[in-house]
């Protein structure tokens, strides 16, 4: 895998349901690279720290390979890297093979994969169509958040090298499917509960669900 673009955003005012809000989802390429800190990208805009940034969402990666698919659906938009609010646009990122808990060297930084991105209305605002929320879920290629294990600078062209593969086989795509499926695969539930790279609150919900069903 390789970093194609590093992206940051400035606070942008948007209108949603009759009120004004600010968002950092409007990200654009930064050719000089970005500095990954322990809870966010240094200098990036994060207006909603309840749902973004923090230890388990310090950096968001999205695959450049998925851009052609979305350009086909939204050809009228002005396209550039960072369209999905990602900090790192990565060539070759494949959610079906990347395990939650994997650790990678990227430039001078080290990241651990933590969880897929769950889309919200702000992605719909960026695309000018709230239909993208369900389209994004159905497509099953959400990109992934990561924990910054070691801070450092990342630049376009940096390789994304796997240094530790998680012994837990749960992939980003597996967990994304689990989040949105009405009927939960017991095997995936078990893997998710046992995967300590996932935020505890994510695992806790599954534990409670499994307890109600008498599965744990």
Give an overview in words.
By secondary structure, the chain is α+β, with helices and mostly antiparallel strands. The protein is built from 6 helices and 12 strands. Strands 4-1-7-6-10-9-8-12 form an 8-stranded mixed β-sheet. Strands 2-3 form a two-stranded antiparallel sheet. A hairpin with a 2-residue loop joins strand 2 and strand 3. Helix 5 crosses helix 6. The mean pLDDT is 93.
Care to give the gist of this entry?
This protein has 6 helices and 12 strands.
Q: What key attributes describe this structure?
A:
216 residues, 8-stranded mixed sheet, two-stranded antiparallel ribbon, globular
Give the topology:
Blueprint: E1 2-9, E2 12-16, E3 19-23, E4 27-29, E5 34-36, E6 59-63, H1 67-73, E7 88-91, E8 103-106, E9 109-116, H2 121-127, H3 132-139, E10 144-150, E11 152-154, E12 160-164, H4 172-180, H5 186-194, H6 200-212
Question: What is the arithmetic mean of pLDDT?
Answer: 93
State the assembly state of the protein chains.
single chain
- Report the portion of residues in β strands: 25-35%
Radius of gyration (Å): 17 Å
- Residue runs with pLDDT of under 50 for 5 or more positions: none
Count of discrete alpha- or pi-helical segments spanning 4 or more residues: 6
Coarse shape: globular
Would you count the extended β strands for me? 12
Order of helices and strands: EEEEEEHEEEHHEEEHHH
State the secondary-structure class: alpha+beta
Cα end-to-end separation: 38 Å
């Amino acid at each position: 895998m390789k970093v194609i673009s590093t992206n940051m955003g400035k606070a942008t005012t948007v209108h949603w349901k009759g009120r004004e809000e600010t968002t950092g989802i409007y990200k654009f390429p930064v050719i000089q690279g970005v500095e990954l800190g322990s809870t966010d990208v240094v200098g990036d805009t994060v207006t909603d720290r309840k749902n973004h940034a923090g230890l388990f969402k310090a950096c968001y990666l999205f695959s450049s390979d998925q851009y052609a698919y979305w350009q086909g659906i939204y050809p009228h938009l002005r396209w550039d890297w960072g369209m999905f609010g990602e900090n790192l646009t990565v060539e070759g990122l494949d959610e079906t093979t990347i395990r939650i808990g994997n650790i990678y060297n990227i430039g001078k930084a080290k990241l651990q994969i933590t969880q897929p991105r769950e889309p919200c209305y702000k992605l719909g605002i960026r695309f000018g169509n709230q239909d993208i929320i369900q389209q994004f879920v159905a497509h099953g290629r959400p990109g992934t958040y990561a924990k910054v294990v070691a801070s450092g600078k990342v630049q376009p062209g940096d390789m994304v090298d796997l240094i530790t593969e998680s012994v837990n086989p749960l992939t980003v795509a597996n967990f994304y499917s689990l989040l949105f499926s009405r009927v939960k695969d017991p095997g995936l539930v078990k893997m998710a509960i046992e995967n300590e790279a996932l935020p505890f609150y994510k695992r806790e919900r599954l534990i409670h669900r499994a307890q109600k069903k008498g599965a744990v």
